[in-house]
Every structure is written in C-alpha cells, then in structure tokens.
Amino acid sequence: MTDTLAVTDGRVLTPEFDVVRADVLIDADAGEIIEVGPDLAGDAEETIDATDSLVMPGLVNAHGHATMTLLRGYADDKTLEDWLQEDIWPAEAELTAEDVAVGTRLAAVELIRSGTTAFADMYFHVGEVVDAVREAGLRARVGHGVVTVGKDEEAARDDFAESVAVAEEYDGAADGRVRTAVMPHAPHTVGTEYFEEFVPRAREAGVPLHFHLNETETYIDEIDAEAGVRPTEYADDLGLLAEDTWVAHGVHVDASEIETLAERGTAVAHCPASNMKLASGMAPVQELLDAGATVALGTDGAASNNDLDLFDEIRDAAMLGKLAADDAAAVDAETAVRMATEGGADALGFDSGRIEAGANADLAVVDLDAVHLTPEHDPVSHLAYAARGSDVRHTVCDGKVLMRDRDVLVFDEDDVRERAQEHAEALAARAEE
Ligand SMILES: [Zn+2]
C-alpha cells in the first residue's frame, strides 16, 4: 500500500483551464497525481483541505539566481550594466559557499510561501544549491554560471569545464527532483572558442543549456561587432539552441530571431519585472507565442525584482505584453497563467504544470476567500490580475506537503531569516571594504 495524500473539497484548475469541483488523490511515494475527481478523500493517509480554494499547478520560476535574495535592496535604480559592474559583481566576488547555502534557503522559503514548486537557478557553489533544494523538497533545474570575459585562458576553460562537470555530477539528485543544465552566462560574456569546445561536451553529456539572450541592446551590439550577426543566429551557429535549451529574457529579439527560437523549440523565460526595473525593454511575448515559441516566466534574481512572488510576474507579463504589442487583447489572463505553469514546466523539462493523472504532484492551493478576490466572476482572471503569493494556503511538491495553512514545514523560517540577515550584512561589509 502506498502513502496517499488527498487535496479535498476544493475546485481544480484543469489542463483545459476549466475550474471543476474535485478532489486530487496523490501517490506521495511516487510523487504523482493518481486521480482527479469527486470524493477521493476516502482512504487517503493524509488530507489537506481546499474548501473555498482553487487547486492550481505549482508555479514554475524558469529563470533566477536564488542566492541573490541576499542582495535584495542592495542596489536599485540603475541600468543593467552599471548595476552589475558597480554593485552586483563586486558583491558576488565576495560570496562564500555558506552565503549560497543561506541565500538559497531564504529563496526556497519565499518560493514555497508563494506557491512556486519548481525553479531554475544559475549560480555558483551548485553543491550548496542542491543541498538546499533537497532540504526544501522543491524541484529545480540548476547549473553553474560561466563567464569567461576578463579571465585568462586557463581560468576561462576551468570555469566552463566546471559547469559541465557540475551538471553531470548533480543530475538526478534529491530523488530526481534536481536536474541540471550547463549555464554559460550569455553569448557576449563567454568567448567563442570556449563555446566551440564545451557545447559539444554538454550535448554529449545529455544536459540542456541555459543562458541570457538579448536582455539589453548591449548584448546585441557586442556580438554584432564581433561576429556581424544577431546573437540568436550566433548562438544557433554554435549549437546552443535546441529543444531542451531555454533562454532568459529575449527582450530585444527581431522577427528572424523569434522564428529561429520557435523552430529550434528553444523556450524563452520572460522576466517582466526585472526587465522593467532595469529598463531593459519590452519582450515581444505575444509575437513569440504567435510564432509557436514556448514562453515561461521568471523572476530573475531578487536584486532586480525584488521578490520571488511569481504571481507578480503573471500580472506583469500580461500587462507588459499588452503594452509591447500595443494591444489590450495580447497576453490574456489564461495565457499568462499558462506561462507560469505548463510553460515553465515545458521549459525546464519537468512533467509538472498540469493537474491530471500521471503528472508530478506539484500544486498550490490558493485561498479565494479574500476581500481582494471578491466577487468572483472568473477565477482565472483572479489568478492573473488580483491574486498574490500570500493567498497560497498550501504548497505541495512531489507529493509532499511543504506548506500547510501558511506554515512552512520544511524549514525553521525564523532561523532561515536570521541567518540570511547576518550573511547579507557581512557580505555587504566585505564588498564595501
Ligand atoms: Zn538572470
């Protein structure tokens, strides 16, 4: 007899985006949904109550840097280039493995509290990230970020080699909840010769790639000056684009780049809040969708957002998508919620993002019994435009309850916060020395 968990007495957002009264029966050992239907609570070992609530797929944060929670509010109101060079890179140069352990746990608590069950992480000290994910009970696609500009040849090669080695080492960790990718930072921050050497190695290892694409005009100008082509074409020539690859941002992509991304099946993790805050620009999300590209949502690091509540990204994506398209019908509510759920799961290669038999049991139970969600004409509209991460009552990942009635079960939240405050203060002091 397997351990079972039932989510009872709620309404369920189906893959067709209907909202139906149903229970969800979960195989807690396998981490899979067994059945969605009426009256399934019967023999379940454990139940969670979803009265007056909506059971939706757990949100998927498809691009970020979890440890950057330690730099939340550290430097704001600058362009991407100034912000990176003047504030973020000097601070990151002082980061220790323990900072990553502490920062990733802080991020994990925030993700769980806002209904996110899977996330992507591009950072350093990946072993610490993996330990935090294991403890959190979340699902993640993690990797070591590679930058070769400003490094000598040996250091540059070591950095890329480490990204491949780390991806091979940790793939399948935490009972399969951790998957990996090789993560070169961006086409213009990694030398061509290193892509030529290591991209085939990543492909041989069977791990996906993830990188920042066309976040600002600078990304494009540098590749244009060096190679005389747009970055998407450059990346394609180097074998960087594939179905298991996903890119972050894609803000400044022209029509031919949109077509290439769609043709290669390379998903785009759209990060609307980060793009607005750094004034990077407006990604042509509706055009990407119309071309058949998979679009997911990401918060990016908490230093450019400044939180990890993906409900903000859903609303921002819908609103910014309309502005970018100059069309109020663009990126409608359902589309925005799909990007944060099945779009993210597709981008990261997880069988999540849908509440149906056989899928991963990754879900969020959203309390609809709130002033700002009254009255209710259309719950999908509320998810896109009115709900917040703090409306999430329960979070379940891989069939395990990570938060029950707003109580995070996997961490001592006060301890995580206290340690984060200490480490953030010490980090800032080192960076400013
Ligand atoms: Zn990023």
TrEMBL record:
Broadest EC class assigned to this enzyme: hydrolase
Organism: Halobaculum saliterrae
UniProt entry tagged with the keyword Zinc: yes
Protein family according to the UniProt entry: Belongs to the metallo-dependent hydrolases superfamily. MTA/SAH deaminase family.
InterPro entries found in the cross-reference section: Amidohydro-rel, Deaminase_MtaD/DadD, Metal-dep_hydrolase_composite, Metal_Hydrolase, MTA/SAH_deaminase
Domain (Amidohydrolase-related) ranges: 54-401
Domain of life of the organism encoding this protein: Archaea
Reactions listed under catalytic activity: S-adenosyl-L-homocysteine + H2O + H(+) = S-inosyl-L-homocysteine + NH4(+); S-methyl-5'-thioadenosine + H2O + H(+) = S-methyl-5'-thioinosine + NH4(+)
Cofactor: Zn(2+)
Cofactor, free-text remark: Binds 1 zinc ion per subunit.
Residue spans crossing the bilayer: none
Alphabetical list of Gene3D superfamilies matching this protein: Metal-dependent hydrolases (3.20.20.140), Urease, subunit C, domain 1 (2.30.40.10)
Function description: Catalyzes the deamination of 5-methylthioadenosine and S-adenosyl-L-homocysteine into 5-methylthioinosine and S-inosyl-L-homocysteine, respectively. Is also able to deaminate adenosine.
Known EC number: 3.5.4.28, 3.5.4.31
HAMAP family: MTA_SAH_deamin
Chain's gene name: mtaD
A Pfam family recorded for this sequence: Amidohydro_1
Molecular function as annotated in GO: 5'-methylthioadenosine deaminase activity; metal ion binding; S-adenosylhomocysteine deaminase activity
Protein name, UniProt field: 5-methylthioadenosine/S-adenosylhomocysteine deaminase
Keyword Metal-binding recorded: yes
